[in-house]
Amino acid sequence: MFQRHCVTINVLRDNPELEYILFLDADMGIINPNHLIEEYINPKFDILFYERIFNFEVMAGSYIVKNTPYSITFLKDWIEYENKLPKSFHGTDNAAIHQILVDWYNPNDKRDLKCRLIWEESK
């Protein structure tokens, strides 16, 4: 599952004229064609994820990414989690996105150890 984000990196690098990419999982669909993707872009942010409304999970299956070195570095770090997955029901890239968000944006959070233990023991 992580390899799909490598494709995103390669498209960004090979196409410097692209300002943004909308990454969509194969099970995503447009349900309201009256809105443009540009409505969801916030130029203050390099990567935009969304949360599921029923469980507040950050989703790995779709995101808007700006073509910046910051975005590429973030995606690379996320991809490297493939080698750090616990030997449990780990959820591949969809669960790893939560850990990379903690690592990047709140690395000293005391709850991190508890969350990692739960992740490592999940079945």
TrEMBL record:
Coiled coil: none annotated. Pfam families: DUF273. InterPro entries: DUF273, Nucleotide-diphossugar_trans. PANTHER family: NUCLEOTIDE-DIPHOSPHO-SUGAR TRANSFERASE (PTHR31562:SF2), PROTEIN CBG18972 (PTHR31562). This is Nucleotide-diphospho-sugar transferase domain-containing protein. It comes from Panagrolaimus davidi.
